Amino acid sequence: MNKLKNFHFVLQGKGGVGKTTVATFITQYVKDYLKQDYLAIDTDQVNASFASFKGLNVETINLMEENRITDTGWEMLANRLLNTDKSNIIIDNGASSFVPLMNYAYDNDLFNTLISEENNYTGNVFIHTVIAGGEGLSHTLAGLNTICNNFENSNIRIIVWINEFLGKVETLDKKITDYPEYKNNESKILGVVRIPTYKGDLFKKDLSDMLTNHKTFEEMKNDTSVFIMSRSRFTRMQKEMFAELNKIDFIFDEEE
């Protein structure tokens, strides 16, 4: 069997829509459910939120010099990705560097280079992009469209994440598949992951506390200073989030 290298880029041009949350969920799934080794990278120079989750052992790569993003930074990132021996690599890219990454990847054929047979082993490039409800809906749909339009000839596949914590994306009358931005790019979209939402305020508070304190589900479940009912809710949220990712578990395969 050939060993695979799966690159999971978490990209979205709109900030504050749950992009880093998605990166942490993917990493937790690989680490705590699949029990696989991985490489996690934070390239967000503004917030470095992903790297703040100490339990996930996230590396940081500096893309900036003198407050501007440089080609050297992108070259460092590409070099790190090409030389890792891990099968699953999760990259959280900040909103501020979304356009520069798009430009660098397009100009240098980055995504196709990562999975070319000239490298140590072949693999796949997956772009995970968030569609958020509320005022971010039109912006995040536009971000999906930008990604697909820029790389229509690349061997990338898109995973759409629906985040309804800030408002509805889907209703009884309109699903994600009804939006023109989805319909026009359906051939590129491999799957849809829905971040579970809950009616009770306690679920929302628990999740907010976990993310604000840069903790994982496992850390919160095992923290005896956390109320027992909160730990029970964390167990449920983790189970339901991982059940969503089980629907696309093949994108994390280590061998073909």
Structural commentary:
The protein has 256 residues and is of the alpha/beta class. It has a single domain, classed as P-loop containing nucleotide triphosphate hydrolases (Rossmann fold). 38% of the residues lie in helices and 18% in strands. The protein contains nine helices and nine strands. The strands form two sheets. The chain has a seven-stranded parallel beta sheet with strand order 3-2-6-1-7-8-9, sandwiched between helices. Helix 7 packs across helix 9.
List keywords for this structure.
alpha/beta; Rossmann fold; seven-stranded parallel sheet; two-stranded antiparallel ribbon; 9 helices; 9 strands
Largest sheet: 7 strands, parallel
In the CATH hierarchy, what is the superfamily? P-loop containing nucleotide triphosphate hydrolases
> Gyration radius, to the nearest Å?
18 Å
Backbone shape: globular
Count of strand segments: 9
Give helix and strand order, one letter per element, not per position. Answer: EHEEEEHEHHEHEHEHHH
Which percent band covers the strand fraction? 15-25%
Task: State the helical fraction.
Answer: 25-40%
Distinct helical segment count = 9
Calculate the mean pLDDT score and round it.
92
Q: Which regions are unreliable across 5 or more consecutive residues at pLDDT < 50?
A: none
CATH class, named: Alpha Beta
**Ends apart, CA distance between termini:** 6 Å
Number of domains: 1
CATH topology, anyone?
A: Rossmann fold
